[in-house]
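Note to self: keep these together.
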Amino acid sequence: MHMAKDRARWYMAYFSMRYTSGGGLNTEAWLFVVSDIEVELLALCYVLLNIEPGSEEKVLNEVRKVQNVKDCHRVYGVYDMIAKVEAESMDSLKEIVTWKIRRLEGVRSTLTTIVIE
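Structure:
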């Protein structure tokens, strides 16, 4: 299975509350970056889309907004568009394609190809 790399950042939060001698409340909060790490994404697919005529630009912009879509282009041929989707699992890929891409207004049909290596 394809192992894509992505970046993640771990944080540590600090919060403090103290009563002052005058009866007031002093608060402070800090957020520290603990480390930057690389995270393995385990699933990759390409989604070929057929789009309703006249909706291509709108659908292209909407597909590019979907969180796990890494790339999306209009193409010539049997299909109108191709999107590259990466996720942490096959179940996540299924959810993204089924509920976030296929349900977009203007998408007529899709064909999903799962990358195996």
